[in-house]
Amino acid sequence: MKVSIHPSWEKALQSSFEAPYFENLVQFVKEEYTRFPNQIFPEGKHIFSAFDSCPFDQIKVVILGQDPYPTRGHAHGLCFSCDSHVRPLPKSLQNIFKELEDDLGIPAPPNGDLNHWANQGVLLLNSILTVREGQPLSHANQGWEKFTDEVIQKINDELEGVIFVLWGSPAQAKAARVDQNKHIVLKAPHPSPLSAYRGFFGSKPFSTINGILTKRGEQAIKWA
Fold first, then answer.
1. Nearest-CA neighbor of 79 among 41, 25, 24, 132?
2. pTM above 0.90, yes or no
3. Angle at which helices 144-158 and 20-35 pack, to 10 degrees?
4. Which residues make Cβ contacts (< 8 Å) with residue 168, sequence separation at least 6?
5. Looking at residue 1, what is its pLDDT?
6. Which residues are catalytic, by number?
7. How many CA atoms lie within 13 Å of 185's alpha carbon, on the beta-carbon side?
């Protein structure tokens, strides 16, 4: 199946795109867009934006989310990120920016669009890539989890030294696919208001990531 995605990912994920389960997944998603017009997020053109913004061979960091924001106008294909016009910011993203300021002294960015992270090699990947308005996890168990498992497996197998940032139990379950002799895994509670105070705040992920990168002689991420 031909998927409109960055050429580096098209090559890396060719076997996934040709698998029967992926064809079934695409059919399900198309039917959802038809049955619920303007209620499936993100827009179709943005489903694979995380991949387009961060080519396969440029990945330094993977931050894993759950599924897109189910609020109209928020999701645009990168986990935790939102369109630049969104006010107020989603609460999880507010907490991420709070930790960024506490960790590195960097004031919150002017908006919630995290493409400037992705363009530096941070893959902002949701486990599930689409959602119905107002219904978190409404597109669970349709094939997206298998697809993103295969994405992580491909990164694990073909790249070296990637820093996986896993916030919350669902993301941490994906660690089973990461060889920690080749890669680095950072775990913390999810930044949502329900769990951020259980250890996300104070986890210092941004300085930790940059410390690892600079120790290797690589360019640190400009989080600002």
1. 41
2. yes
3. 130
4. 66, 189, 190, 192, 195
5. 73
6. 67
7. 18
